[in-house]
Amino acid sequence: LTAKQVQVFVAEGEAARPVFALDDPDHMQVYVEDAIGRFDATGFPLEYRTELVVYRDGREIGRGPVTVSHPLSAGGYRFHQSAYFPDGAALRVRDLASGRLVFDEVLALVDQAATPRIIVKDTAGAVLVDDAIVPTDFLGDAAGTTIRIPGTERQFWVGARPGDSVTPWQLVVFETSRPGGVREIIAPGASLDLGGFQLEFAGVTSIPSSAVSGLPGAQGAAVAELSEGPGGLLLTVGPVAGRALALSPGQPVIVDGYEYTFEGRREFAGLTVRRDPGSTFIWVATAAFLAGLALTFYTPRRRLWGKIASGRAVFRGLGGSRKAIEREIMEVAARAGRRL
To answer: pLDDT tens across 237-268, in order?
Structure first.
């Protein structure tokens, strides 16, 4: 009757994942159709729910919604929602020479990477750029990318590098669209005149990130970061061939014979799978205990005291309603009188 429990983390749309730790002889698997998280305006979670399908030996044995307090029962197990992660990214890499898919993973971006946020305004104070800079290449110890000011031909390389104990971060800015352009380093909160435009280093923000191992074409360990770019969702992965790849959903990028495709954002569900054969006995024992407790409170014990002295008998009783105990005392007295 030993209880068994295992925790698994599964991305929505991912191939059905085996639950090996339960030692199930029929190869139980779980498939997450949808992982759902709802939050209020302040970011407080309102609901975590998973639309789950359970298979055993390739055959569907259970399907339905799963929450923390309302598990799905299938095959003698209970499946509880235990966690929710909104930031996953589906990445595929294909070897163009052979046509084989050499990397197909849903990356769980559970870490946070620091990245600078910049604001660019025109002379009238209108905001032209307000974005976090996700690095796509490197310049010395600075990691950054090239930005273009909307409506102009002017381009700037903007990146961040570690500072000192007084200024933890520094923003490196130099113009690439014309010779002799701006080349400056500024601290958080400072502004820079770009000649008709004003750039402000608004500070450092965090974006979902994770280390990636075994990525084809990467030089050692790679880093993946998910952000909202000017054109929408953006997955940055690198270094690959000395630079980071900026991948938009469904738009392949080819580098050194490999095709990299960001399939889109994926949400993760954390599931706790339990089996406790002794739980039936526990529930039976609990029911018996509650039944005994109810009998104690709703069926009070009877107590009777009697005193006989100087030819007079006096009785007192305790238990039940007043009329019921009086009737029982009268019956006892009547029986005693008949025996006398």
So the answer is: 888 887 778 899 999 999 999 999 999 988 88
Side-chain-side CA neighbours of 239 within 13 Å: the count stands at 10
- Per DSSP, the residues of 237-249 read EEEETTEEEEE-B
Burial of 237 from C-beta contacts in 10 A (0-12 / 13-18 / 19+): buried
Q: Which of 307-316 are b and which e, b meaning 16 or more Cβ less than 10 Å from the residue's Cβ?
A: eeeeeeeebe
> Residue 188 pLDDT more than 50?
yes
Q: Which residues contact 183 (CB under 8 A, 6 or more apart)?
A: 173, 174, 175
Cis peptide before 239 (omega within 30 of 0): yes
**Given this model, what pLDDT does residue 24 score?**
59
Vertex 143 angle, CA 141 and 149, to 5°: 135
Query: Rounded to an integer, what distance in angstroms lies between the CA atom of residue 48 and that of residue 252?
Result: 33
CB count in 10 Å sphere of residue 4 = 14
Label residue 61 exposed, middle or buried (CB < 10 Å: 0-12, 13-18, 19+): middle
pLDDT at 173 over 60: yes
User: Residue 282: helix, strand or coil by DSSP?
Assistant: helix
The tokens describing 219, both together, are 């030089």
For residue 131 the two structure tokens come to 């974005």
The two tokens of residue 78 are 């209970």
pLDDT at 197: 92
Identify which of 1-5, 85-89, 231-235 has the greatest average pLDDT: 85-89
Pairing of strands 28-39, 17-18: antiparallel
SS3 4: strand
HEC string of 94-127?
A: EECCCCCEEEEEEEECCEEEEEEEEEEEECCCCE
The conformation of residue 57, written as its DSSP 8-state character, comes to: T
**pLDDT(277) > 80:** no
The Cβ-side half-sphere exposure at 97, using a 13 Å CA radius, reads 3
